[in-house]
Amino acid sequence: MIPTLTALAVITQFLRSAFLVGGVIFGAVAAADWAVRTRRLNPFGGVARFLRAQVDPRLGGVERQVMRAGGRASATPWWALVLYILVALFTLSALGMIAALVQELGMASALGTVGFLVLAVRWTFGLLRLALLVRVLSSWFPGLGASRWVRWSYSATEWMLRPLRRLIPSIGVIDVTPIVAYFALQILQSPVESIFTSTLR
Questions:
Q1: Read out DSSP for 155-187?
Q2: Residue 13: what pLDDT?
Q3: Of the ranges 71-80, 100-109, 180-189, which one carries the lowest mean pLDDT score?
Q4: Dihedral of alpha carbons 83, 89, 91, 93, sign
Q5: Cα 173 from Cα 65, distance rounded (Å)
Q6: How far apart are the C-alpha atoms of 40 and 42, rounded to whole Å?
Q7: What is the DSSP letter of 14?
Q8: Three-class DSSP category at 33
Q9: What SS3 state is found at 142?
Q10: Which of 28, 74, 78, 149 could form a disulfide with 37 if both were Cys (CB 3.0 to 4.6 A apart)?
Q11: What's the DSSP call for residue 26?
Q12: Is the CB of residue 182 less than 8 Å from the CB of residue 129?
């Protein structure tokens, strides 16, 4: 268990630094692209030509989502930056979840049957949170939700999100119900584990 946890810690630290550097670069590119799109920079200059040739084609999927939601094309770079931040946070969160699951497996094995049953409850909550992450990320790529590798996340989470959508409106183009559900699962996990543990004892 210890070598696995060490490897995960090293990977997480590397990705945290890489995401930070990438975020600074992405932020600068997003600001320049926004300035070109809103004509604050010369749309015929070298920077504008570079952005149109190298950056804008890669933002096509995000731009289609923004336009479909009624947003402005000029806001695409900022929404792309938001997506990058979400991907970074979700990736680091997923690695943290995996490390926690490995650690819990070691502790559960020391506790015997009760430990493994409590672990099953924890892993259920973890799987639901992972499904929410997969669903959010796939929603930004048209057609990906129909993939068999992603479809399971919709089946696993729709029962949570449907009633939340009736209560919580979207913010612009962002459906915040997966975020609310994610944090609700984190809050509910401890009391459910406590009830489960006390019942088993």
A1: HHHHHHHHHHHHHS--BTTB--HHHHHHHHHHH
A2: 94
A3: 100-109
A4: negative
A5: 8
A6: 7
A7: H
A8: helix
A9: coil
A10: 74
A11: H
A12: yes
More confident residue, 116 or 143: 116
Statement: residue 19 has pLDDT above 80: yes
Q: Which residue's entry shows tokens 């997480």?
A: 12
What distances in angstroms separate CA 38 from CA 42, 65, 137, 161, 201, one per listed residue? 10, 19, 28, 36, 64
d(CA 51, CA 76): 13
**Which pLDDT does position 146 carry in this prediction?**
67
pLDDT in tens, 119-172: 888 888 888 998 998 888 887 776 666 677 788 888 899 999 989 888 888 777
C-alpha to C-alpha distance for 6 and 11, rounded to whole angstroms? 9
Contact 78, 34 (CB under 8 A): yes
Distance CA(43)–CA(39), nearest Å, equals: 6
Q: Encode pLDDT of 176-186 as tens digits.
A: 888 899 999 98
End-to-end CA distance of the chain: 27
C-beta of residue 23 within 8 angstroms of C-beta of residue 88: yes
Closest of 174, 143, 169, 158 to residue 69, by C-alpha: 174
3-class secondary-structure state, position 45: coil
